[in-house]
């Protein structure tokens, strides 16, 4: 953590959950600027910003660049979730999800990079959902997979001038994020009770089974403090093991996951 001192750090979605926990850890020794739709506008360390609105994103990052001169670290954490049978999911829901989860990361990265120098870093919060599918969460999983590939591809582009980009694949963290998921429960004879069954499974997966938010924030801080990162970091040992199993037996894993969650 000694590398995280005196830095200019921007965190999107920094007023709640993982983003807030990371901001709280880093604020003592760094200048932390939070962006969120619910944030107050103080023109210095807090900006109300919808990351899916590129004009507003550019306005905010230009103000940050003007005030501080540079940005050392950008943590793209803001996210939105919607669930339901993919066949029946309204187009507006799918577009809103990608507007926040993918385009929000893209816009913030594009607008931050002009103020980032060699040694700077962008860390994008992806998910284990990006590498392991789950039923009735297809659009969310796809958006996080898009973030993972965006991170890996941009990493190659920015590496020659010294800006590091990495994706952090988080598993279940004990925050209120699942409670804010927009659930689309519309079903038909094809899906029957399966959509509701998965929602019940998610509800019953209590916080005691998830990684504490403080632990997740600590791991994220240690990763972004590294001298070198890989293109992807899976957060949580059990998810690392699960990923290895999934690599060798993907079809079996998908069948088991569906059986457990939907049945």
How would you characterize the overall build of this protein?
The protein has helices at residues 17-26, 54-68, 91-112, 138-158, 194-204, 213-224, 237-248, 250-262; strands spanning 8-12, 31-36, 46-48, 73-76, 82-83, 121-127, 164-170, 182-183, 232-235. It is α/β, with parallel strands linked by helices and 263 residues long. The chain has one domain (8-262): Rossmann fold (3-Layer(aba) Sandwich). A 7-stranded parallel beta sheet has the order 3-2-1-4-6-7-9, with helices on both faces. A two-stranded parallel ribbon has the order 5-8. Helix 2 (54-68) runs parallel beside helix 3 (91-112). The termini are far apart. The model has no long low-confidence stretch (mean pLDDT 95).
List the helices and strands and how they pair.
Layout: E1 8-12, H1 17-26, E2 31-36, E3 46-48, H2 54-68, E4 73-76, E5 82-83, H3 91-112, E6 121-127, H4 138-158, E7 164-170, E8 182-183, H5 194-204, H6 213-224, E9 232-235, H7 237-248, H8 250-262
Parallel strand pairs: 1-2, 1-4, 2-3, 4-6, 5-8, 6-7, 7-9
Keywords:
alpha/beta; globular; Rossmann fold; 263 residues; two-stranded parallel sheet; 15% strand; 44% helix; single chain; seven-stranded parallel beta sheet; 8 helices
What is the CATH level 1 assignment? Alpha Beta
Classification by helices and strands? alpha/beta
Helix content: 40-55%
The total beta strand count reads: 9
Gross morphology is: globular
CATH topology title: Rossmann fold
Please tell me the CATH architecture by its name.
3-Layer(aba) Sandwich
Q: What is the H/E string?
A: EHEEHEEHEHEEHHEHH
In the CATH hierarchy, what is the superfamily?
NAD(P)-binding Rossmann-like Domain
Spatially, the strands of the biggest sheet line up as: 3-2-1-4-6-7-9
Strand content: 15-25%
* Computed CA radius of gyration, to the nearest angstrom: 18 Å
Average of pLDDT: 95
State the separation between the terminal residues, measured CA to CA: 44 Å
Total of helices: 8
């Amino acid at each position: 953590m000694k590398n995280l001192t005196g830095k200019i750090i921007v965190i999107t979605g920094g007023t709640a959950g993982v983003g807030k926990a990371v901001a709280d850890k880093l604020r003592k020794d760094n200048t932390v600027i939070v962006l969120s739709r619910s944030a107050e506008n103080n023109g210095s360390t807090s900006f109300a910003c919808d990351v899916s609105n590129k004009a507003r994103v550019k306005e905010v990052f230009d103000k940050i660049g003007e005030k501080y001169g540079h940005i050392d670290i950008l943590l793209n954490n803001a996210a939105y979730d919607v669930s339901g049978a993919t066949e029946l999911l309204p187009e507006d829901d799918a577009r809103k999800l990608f507007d926040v989860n993918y385009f929000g990361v893209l816009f913030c990265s594009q607008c931050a990079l002009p103020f980032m120098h060699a040694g700077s870093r962008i860390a994008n919060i992806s998910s284990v959902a990006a590498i392991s599918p789950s039923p009735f969460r297809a659009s969310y999983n796809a958006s996080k997979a898009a973030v993972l590939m965006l991170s890996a591809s941009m990493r190659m582009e920015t590496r020659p001038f010294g800006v590091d980009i990495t994706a952090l694949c988080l598993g279940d963290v004990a925050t209120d994020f699942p409670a804010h998921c927009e659930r689309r429960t519309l079903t038909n004879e094809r899906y029957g009770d399966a959509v509701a069954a998965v929602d019940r499974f998610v509800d019953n997966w209590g916080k005691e089974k998830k990684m504490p938010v403080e632990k997740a924030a600590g791991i994220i801080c240690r990763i972004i403090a590294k001298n070198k990162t890989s293109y992807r970091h899976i957060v949580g040992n059990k998810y690392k093991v699960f990923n290895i199993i999934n690599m060798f037996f993907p079809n079996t894993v998908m069948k088991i996951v569906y059986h457990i969650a939907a049945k």
